[in-house]
Design brief:
The chain is mainly alpha-helical and 462 residues long. It has one domain. The chain has 15 helices and no strands. The longest helix has 39 residues.
């Protein structure tokens, strides 16, 4: 009974952290949903342009998110030790690195037209996509600052701050989309391109809100956070190099995970705007569901990091087991929901019967996708809390690029096994990639727990 009580306690802690994180993710992923639905009401070309543009933008955006994810375990462990200056230093480093990296990434999005032509994207879609990418690129430096602040707020277990900022951003996104896509209040009707400008404005709003909320929180380490005096790049254990050794693998891991979706979207673009639109619907709805396991993974990162910082390694295995059980239970629920309502979900996105029918079929694959996806992302969250990032990166490369993409291309375009060309083969490849990642990262979690136990035993010896 005592063991059950302890596991229930850990489940309660994780769920209390996860709740606001889920709501924060709702606001973030809902922006993509709003963009897809509102652009889809203009034309299939605008929807396809947003689909292709988002598929190019999001790997870059997720690299930035991953890079700044280093702030969360650094702050969580420092907060667990009661080290306020280290909390402040980690957040300031994140802000400086995020701003510089965001600026450096902007020209990458400006130069995608030749790449889209090489990948065979429909000639009618390319100009709209190019203007969309230019508009949304201006949000990258702002996002670098925002995610550094968000990582700090999450790291000292105040996810409600990012939740409030996220819903403000969502409100700005909806209003700006309405004005810029359709051309109200005397503004030009930009169609899908308006989604890019609306996203940039929403990121600016979230950054401003997060800065104000942190300043008012008076949490240890947030004093003098925004003053220009003092150091912004640390030394020794808190050096920029140490930050990058932790953050770059996280950024590359997210980039690798998302880049496979980008390449698949570009491969599918050869099959026409309607197929792209159907694939985007299935992918977009999956991204709405992804917020649940991803939020739990973020809670695990914070809870694991804080527990290590406090030196309470005896709790660690229990936290890990509880978190993974919650992840599996949640993914079973979302899988069943998608299986039961695939046709209704597709109908929410588009009135086009051909797009709707194909999207409903792809959603059946997306339902199965939920199970391995939840396990691999939560194993990754545990490893981030342990500040273990380089080996997980290599395991992700193997799963996605060594298994998922070749298999998906073979089934989806090359006719492997006699399968007709289409997006279904790519979804099978994705499911296989996620399954491999879940197994490999789960094994790495076991290795890290064993190493931490061994280190604790060595430290206890006289």
């Amino acid at each position: 009974m005592r063991a059950l009580s302890l596991h229930l306690h850990e489940a309660g802690v994780l769920l209390r952290l996860t709740g606001p994180l889920v709501l924060a993710q709702v606001s973030q992923t809902a922006m993509g949903l709003v963009d897809t639905v509102m652009a889809g009401r203009v034309s299939a070309v605008d929807l396809a342009a947003v689909a292709v543009g988002s598929s190019i933008f999001f790997p870059v955006y997720l690299f930035l998110i991953g890079l700044l994810s280093a702030v969360t375990p650094l702050v969580a462990q420092a907060y667990g030790r009661g080290d306020g200056p280290a909390v402040r230093q980690s957040m300031r480093q994140g802000m400086a690195i995020g701003l510089i990296t965001g600026c450096l990434l902007m020209p990458l999005l400006w130069s995608m037209r030749p790449f889209m032509a090489w990948m065979g994207v429909d000639a009618e879609v390319i100009p709209v996509t190019d203007r969309y990418l230019f508009a949304i690129s201006w949000g990258l430096p702002l996002a670098g600052l925002f995610f550094a602040l968000k990582g700090g707020g999450d790291g000292f277990a105040k996810p409600r701050l990012s939740m409030f900022a996220g819903f403000l951003g969502l409100g700005v996104n909806i209003v700006a989309n309405y004005l810029l896509i359709y051309g109200h209040l005397g503004l030009p009707a930009l169609g899908g391109v308006g989604c890019g400008w609306a996203t940039t404005l929403s990121i600016l709003a979230m950054l401003a809100a997060m800065a104000v909320l942190l300043k008012k929180s008076r949490t240890q380490g947030t004093d003098r956070l925004f003053t220009l005096t003092g150091t912004w790049f640390g030394s020794g254990a808190s050096s920029t190099a140490a930050f990058l050794r932790l953050g770059v693998p996280l950024g590359l891991a997210l980039f690798i995970e998302c880049s496979i979706f980008t390449l698949i979207a570009l491969f599918i673009a050869k099959l026409g705007a309607q197929v792209v639109a159907a694939h985007q619907i299935a992918l977009n709805f999956s991204s709405q569901l992804y917020m649940l396991p991803y939020s739990l993974a973020m809670a695990l990162t914070v809870h694991v990091g804080y527990t290590i910082g406090r030196g309470r390694l005896g709790r660690l295995a229990r936290i890990v087991r509880t978190g993974l059980v919650l992840a599996l239970a949640g993914s079973v629920c979302t899988c069943l929901v998608v299986l039961a309502f695939s046709w209704e979900i597709a109908g929410m996105y588009t009135p086009d019967p051909m797009v709707r029918d194909l999207a409903a079929t792809l959603l059946l694959f997306a339902a199965i996708f939920q199970l391995p996806d939840a396990m691999q992302v939560n194993c990754g969250g545990i490893l981030r809390g342990c500040k273990d990032t380089r080996v997980p990166l290599m395991l992700m490369v193997l799963a996605y690029w060594g298994i998922g993409l070749p298999l998906g291309y073979g089934l989806g375009l090359a006719g492997l096994g006699g399968m007709e060309p289409g997006p279904q083969g790519f979804w099978i490849g994705l499911i296989c990639a996620l399954s491999a990642a879940a197994v490999l990262l789960g094994g790495r979690v076991r290795v890290m727990l064993r190493r931490l136990r061994e280190a604790e035993v060595r430290a206890a010896r006289p």
